[in-house]
Write a structure and sequence with these properties.
Layout: E1 11-13, E2 26-27, E3 30-31, E4 43-49, H1 59-73, E5 78-88, E6 109-114, E7 122-128, H2 136-145, E8 150-154, E9 160-165, E10 168-171, E11 181-190
Antiparallel strand pairs: 1-4, 2-3, 4-5, 5-11, 6-9, 6-11, 7-8, 7-10
């Protein structure tokens, strides 16, 4: 799936891999999709399951992995979005990150499953989206206007799962040096249990 001519379809995003292309995200005169050039990166995606319940015919091939993720989490979960993303080596500065974002506006958990080792970190920021701070348009506008400070960088390691609060801003980065691509499985799910509660 990650490499080779195996028939797995990838879909090209020519503007930015962090967001779905759209023209209707406006806040007053501001286009909320106006991402700084240095944070844009083209890439490829394959949505296995979207929030409207539409499934890719390839989802069945990932069912054992999704079951294993649920076993690792140890609580019943409901996936509402499962997406593969591929970023490419564009010769960017290794410390440069792509657009900070959250994957969905509602309360949820997010997870990244790393399919292979990569030198393209996932960057996590100290900032969180606050669902009580205003309507969705305001929250998008704030996300584009605020400054971000890096909390940590996570280096992808094959077969590792990283779970986090879905309201935490995060971003991908691009592979550099001799690496050509970075593939991650992005998971968004809901769970009635507090996964981060102290035991």
């Amino acid at each position: 799936m990650v490499g080779g001519m195996n028939g797995f379809p990838w879909y090209f995003l020519s503007k930015d891999v962090s967001y779905t292309p759209t023209d209707d995200f406006q806040f007053g005169a501001d286009n909320l999709m106006d991402i700084p050039e240095q944070e844009k990166t083209i890439g490829f995606v394959h949505v296995l399951l979207d929030q409207d319940g539409v499934e890719s015919p390839w989802l069945v091939h990932f069912a054992p992995l999704l079951d294993n993720v649920q076993d690792a989490i140890g609580s019943p979960i409901e996936y509402f979005r499962v997406r593969l993303a591929m970023t490419l080596n564009h010769g960017k500065d290794p410390l440069q990150h792509n657009a900070p974002h959250t994957d969905h506006e509602t309360d949820h958990y997010a997870a990244l499953y790393y399919l292979h080792d990569s030198n393209a970190d996932t960057v996590f920021f100290n900032e969180y989206d606050d669902p009580n701070s205003g309507d969705l348009d305001y929250r998008w506008w704030k996300a584009r206007q605020q400054d971000y400070t890096i909390q940590k960088r996570v280096k992808p390691k094959a077969n590792n799962l990283f779970v986090f609060d879905g309201h935490q801003f995060h971003s991908s980065s691009n592979p550099h040096g001799d690496e050509n691509y970075r593939v991650t499985l992005n998971l968004n799910f809901r769970c009635d249990n507090d996964l981060f509660a102290s035991h």
